[in-house]
């Protein structure tokens, strides 16, 4: 079920042969309405893939009747011919569901710098349209996987309406530029402004704070489609919480399945002067290869955390910082605190808290450790 | 010879027992004048080690009569007691050479968050002072090594004067927060303004552009000491070139000995609108783990280069970028160019050129690949 749990949606997942593995590689999600309100956030990378360039045009209308997603090829750095391929897919889907190309969002993921096989793509879309059903959510979630070891899905129940979601990839984790693709569906009746506000706030606190290797994909897309089929106009705050909860659930699933990771690390920066300060410090730590290697080595190396914090412009006094690993305050006031021997980093979940003592704002960033398996997967991926 | 190649300098390197390995760990360099002009650049990390905090005070006088360097402990995040240890070292060296504490620069490198063994340090400095000689340069260069596999030294001959240098560590490469320490000596007669200008320009184009893992050390120090013993006042441009040449030589030695690296990568960004743009793009590529893993895997993955460039604010059109690996233009105008099969990445030296087609500025950044050995060394370092 999942993305087809809310009323008004049909989906399918099929094998078009774009993937060498022969696994499913085309997913189609159709919004049968009555409403076709949609909102989306895209990668902020300036080198955007063709499907992102196209889908940005679609989203200018603030509506979408369908989204077609393919794995097995990112259609990125493929020039005008690649854009034409994307546009043809949108046109084909539009024709099959009685809509225009401009109603169809397109997402692609996989290797970059190569053209998609157009005949296979066309045949696959035809097949996917024929298999659309209100039970197709799980099949769609399977078809968008690349190096994922399992599909990611989530559903939440609101007051008379539902929110469902599927995701693939490793998001901001961006292994091999594989893409974070997320589709969220709801049968709540919401207007375009509400959908946009709710989606932006939800992604800001979830997917945007997943920072596994600091590499930003060229294809990232998070799409919210609202069918209105429940007839229920939700309270915005409650609806926002539900969408954020689905995003958080999917983000944690992405984190747990990140390529090569041994540890899921939660970095909480507390008592910052501003949320932006807390975020800047959290991101700088999440991007420190030295810190990430240390966690892989089960070493509560707080010095590498302070050194990362020291590269930021956040407000704090270096000699006042406290740092805890899994609840043990190994650094107090910029000096050794409790014994590092007390810290046990054998579990997959690792908690780091950094106290800036500069205010009352905070932020949480999620990341992974840097492992041999990460290096292996990302050095061998395209060879 | 090296740092003692210029007239007016004595140096020594001894074993104080700060290192568990029992290898040399204290180096002393004394400037016998007649001039004691000096200039220095320090890490811009806000979380600075105690020796950096002290040495910044010394350099406010724009003179220095000696520098004492220890490996086997960074004296970083060690609070007021650690600062006191640094100050006591300066005072002790001053007493031994007939100068004040304020004349003595102190540098430390090694593990952080631990106090130095003061009795060992004191005895070691006493020993080092007794071994000072005009042939002690090589011994000093040995004593500052941590994970370096060999010492780094360079000498250049000017018109009637010399410039010598020694370096340790992996600089901006910053393995395990081990530090880049560089001491450059000259017997040229230069004033403080000239020394400062020349050193800043030289480091800007050499050590500052060495960016192996994006992690900034808490202890980095580059010190230039000018004895004036040759009696020759050099032409500033020629002197500047010589100092830059010594810095470049040492920087390349650091690059070649970076922990765990399989490849030395030169990233040249050309035809940028400004030098700052070229630098921003170069650094973003040098900090992409995905790019660095690809080079380790001998994969000319230009997509990861474009994706890194796309995260910057530099002026360029994404669809116009060209990228070459070892002279093969694998990407032309943001699309596949020459066959990637033509690129051979088996040699240690790798050249990447990115053409932004936006102006006539350029910049070069040096970095290393991301390897299993890097992960191993940095996950096992302090355990």
Automatic annotation (TrEMBL), chains A, B:
GO cellular component: cytoplasm
Residues marked Cleavage (site): 178-179
Functional pathway: Amino-acid biosynthesis; L-arginine biosynthesis; L-ornithine and N-acetyl-L-glutamate from L-glutamate and N(2)-acetyl-L-ornithine (cyclic): step 1/1; Amino-acid biosynthesis; L-arginine biosynthesis; N(2)-acetyl-L-ornithine from L-glutamate: step 1/4
Residues the record lists as binding substrate: 146, 168, 179, 259, 378, 383
Site (Involved in the stabilization of negative charge on the oxyanion by the formation of the oxyanion hole): 109-110
Main localization of the protein described in the UniProt heading: cytoplasm
Keywords tagged on the record: Acyltransferase, Amino-acid biosynthesis, Arginine biosynthesis, Autocatalytic cleavage, Cytoplasm, Multifunctional enzyme, Transferase
Location of the active site: 179 (nucleophile)
KW Aminoacyl-tRNA synthetase (keyword) present: no
A GO molecular-function descriptor: L-glutamate N-acetyltransferase activity, acting on acetyl-L-ornithine as donor
InterPro entries documented for this protein: Arg_biosynth_ArgJ (IPR002813), ArgJ-like_dom_sf (IPR016117), ArgJ_beta_C (IPR042195)
UniProt EC number: 2.3.1.35, 2.3.1.1
SUPFAM superfamilies: DmpA/ArgJ-like (SSF56266)
Biological processes per GO annotation: L-arginine biosynthetic process; ornithine biosynthetic process
Subcellular location: Cytoplasm
Catalyzed chemical reaction(s): L-glutamate + acetyl-CoA = N-acetyl-L-glutamate + CoA + H(+); N(2)-acetyl-L-ornithine + L-glutamate = N-acetyl-L-glutamate + L-ornithine
The protein's assembly and partners: Heterotetramer of two alpha and two beta chains.
Function: Catalyzes two activities which are involved in the cyclic version of arginine biosynthesis: the synthesis of N-acetylglutamate from glutamate and acetyl-CoA as the acetyl donor, and of ornithine by transacetylation between N(2)-acetylornithine and glutamate.
PANTHER family hit by this protein: ARGININE BIOSYNTHESIS BIFUNCTIONAL PROTEIN ARGJ, ARGININE BIOSYNTHESIS BIFUNCTIONAL PROTEIN ARGJ, MITOCHONDRIAL
Family indicated by similarity: Belongs to the ArgJ family.
Protein name, UniProt field: Arginine biosynthesis bifunctional protein ArgJ
Gene behind this protein: argJ
């Amino acid at each position: 079920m999942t993305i087809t749990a809310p009323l008004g949606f049909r989906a399918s997942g099929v094998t078009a042969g774009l993937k060498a593995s022969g696994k499913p590689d085309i997913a189609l999600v159709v919004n049968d309405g009555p409403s076709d309100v949609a909102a989306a956030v895209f990668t902020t990378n300036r080198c955007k893939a063709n499907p992102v360039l196209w889908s940005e045009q679609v989203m200018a209308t603030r509506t979408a009747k369908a989204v077609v997603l393919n794995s097995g090829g990112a259609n990125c750095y493929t020039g005008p011919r690649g854009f034409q391929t994307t546009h043809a897919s949108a046109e084909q889907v539009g024709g099959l569901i009685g809509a225009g190309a401009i109603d169809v969002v397109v997402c692609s993921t996989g290797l970059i710098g190569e053209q998609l096989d157009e005949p296979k793509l066309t045949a696959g879309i035809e097949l996917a349209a024929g298999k659309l059903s209100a039970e197709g959510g799980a099949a769609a979630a399977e078809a968008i996987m690349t190096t994922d070891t399992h599909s990611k899905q989530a559903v939440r129940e609101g007051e008379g309406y539902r929110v469902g979601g599927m995701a693939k990839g490793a998001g901001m984790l961006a292994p091999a530029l594989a893409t974070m693709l997320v589709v969220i569906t709801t049968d709540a009746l919401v207007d375009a402004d509400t959908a946009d506000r709710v989606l932006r706030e939800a992604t800001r606190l979830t997917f945007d704070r997943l920072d596994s290797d600091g590499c930003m994909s060229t294809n990232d897309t998070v799409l919210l489609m609202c069918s209105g089929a429940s007839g229920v106009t939700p309270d915005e705050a409650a609806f926002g919480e539900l969408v954020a909860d689905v995003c958080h659930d999917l983000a944690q699933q992405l984190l747990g399945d990140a390529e090569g990771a041994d540890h899921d690390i939660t970095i909480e920066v507390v008592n910052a002067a501003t949320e932006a300060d807390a975020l800047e410090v959290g991101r700088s730590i999440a991007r420190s290869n030295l810190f990430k290697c240390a966690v892989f080595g089960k070493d509560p190396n707080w010095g590498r955390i302070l050194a990362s914090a020291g590269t930021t412009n956040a407000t704090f006094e270096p000699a006042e910082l406290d740092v805890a690993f899994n609840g043990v305050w190994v650094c107090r006031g910029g000096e050794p605190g409790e014994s590092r021997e007390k810290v046990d980093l054998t579990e997959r979940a690792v908690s780091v808290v950094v106290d800036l003592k500069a205010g009352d704002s905070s932020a949480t960033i999620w990341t992974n450790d840097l492992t041999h398996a990460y290096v292996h997967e990302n050095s061998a991926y395209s060879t």
